[in-house]
From TrEMBL:
It comes from Aquiflexum gelatinilyticum. The keyword Phosphoprotein applies. Keywords: Phosphoprotein. This is Response regulator. InterPro entries: Bact_response_regulator, CheY-like_superfamily, Sig_transdc_resp-reg_receiver. GO terms for biological process: phosphorelay signal transduction system. The modification 4-aspartylphosphate is found at D58.
């Protein structure tokens, strides 16, 4: 069993998903430290000076694609564990993710309680 997640960051432009995920995650683990960013640039700014156990990163965002975000993380020498979040599984995304060693998998929206429980290590 993996170590439970105590700090989780979401970078996703979908406010509704933030609301749903916050409610469901806090129901599973009310002690978790959760941060949600709609803007990937704000998330990168936060990550410059802070760390997290897991980053859940949307593949497709209007301001910056998830892949560009990963490139920026690499420039900062951050080795944060990342799960990519997508609305539809594109096989090319899986291939592309293999370039980024910090990417440990893909999650499909909306996240079920079972998936959230697994992510949180509970």
């Amino acid at each position: 069993m993996t170590k439970p997640i105590s700090k989780l960051i979401f970078v996703d432009d979908d406010k509704i998903q933030h609301m749903i995920n916050r409610k469901n995650i806090l129901r599973i683990n009310p002690e978790i430290d959760l941060l949600f960013f709609e803007n990937p640039y704000e998330a990168l700014g936060w990550l410059k000076d802070n760390d997290t156990d897991l980053l859940i990163l949307d593949v497709n965002m209007p301001e910056m694609q998830g892949w560009d975000f990963l490139d920026e993380l690499n420039k900062m020498n951050k080795t944060t564990k990342v799960k990519m979040l997508t609305s539809s599984m594109d096989p090319m995304d899986v291939v592309k993710s293999q370039v980024y060693p910090q990417v440990s998998g893909f999650l499909v929206k909306p996240l079920s309680n079972e998936v959230l429980t697994e992510i949180l290590g509970i």
